[in-house]
Amino acid sequence: MRTDRTFTMLKPDSVEKGHIGAILEKINAAGFRIVALKETQMTTADAQAFYAVHNERPFFGELVEYMTRGPIVAAILEKDNAVEDFRTLIGATNPADAAEGTIRKLYAASIGENAVHGSDSDENAAIEGAFHFSGREMF
Ligand code: UDP
Ligand code: MG
After folding, report:
1. Which residues line ligand 1 (CB under 6 A)?
2. Which of 13, 102, 114, 130 is the least buried, fewest Cβ under 10 Å from its Cβ?
3. Contact 14/23 with Cβ under 8 angstroms?
4. pTM for this model (two decimals)
């Protein structure tokens, strides 16, 4: 994947609360082009693999439970400086620390259930995008 792309998931809490449209609108308004988009549900094995980097952390079990309890919306997004700009748009991991107007400040309930994922590097954006989408699903 190109370095002007990032990967996001609208997590199960966002889907449950009916926030798909509002969050996608924020993403569009911030100048990201949607390259790929789908609603899907991760299996336990999927979530364990996706978050493997965190498998020693105390919150790993809860994270896998949360991320598999219902559907998510996965997307690949394109913009100059996509990874960094999207992390700015979503705000800090803990919504209590997130800046005003960020997606997590607006829609996240807690550090665990924090509404959205955003890749942390160009390398991980490519890995995570390929985890969820085939080449024929990217435009
Ligand atoms: N998480 C959690 N407790 C923590 C830290 C993280 O439940 O103390 C969850 C949260 O859903 C977070 C995800 O694990 O989004 C991945 O953590 P990371 O540190 O990568 O945060 P992010 O990159 O999502 O801001
Ligand atoms: Mg992360």
Report:
1. 54, 59, 63, 93, 111-112, 114, 117, 120
2. 130
3. yes
4. 0.97
pLDDT truncated to tens, each residue of the chain (139 aa)? 467 999 999 999 999 999 999 999 999 999 999 999 999 999 999 999 999 999 999 999 999 999 999 999 999 999 999 999 999 999 999 999 999 999 999 999 999 999 999 999 999 999 999 999 999 999 9
Number of DSSP helices (H) and strands (E) in the chain, helices first: 7, 4
- 117 carries an active-site annotation: yes
123: phi > 0 → left, psi -120 to 50 → alpha, else beta; which? alpha
Rounded to 5 degrees, what angle do the CA atoms 102, 114, 104 make? 5
**Nearest ligand 1 atom to alpha carbon 114:** 11
CATH of 5-137, one of 3.20.20.70, 3.30.70.100, 3.30.70.141, 3.40.50.300: 3.30.70.141
Domain ranges of the chain: 5-137
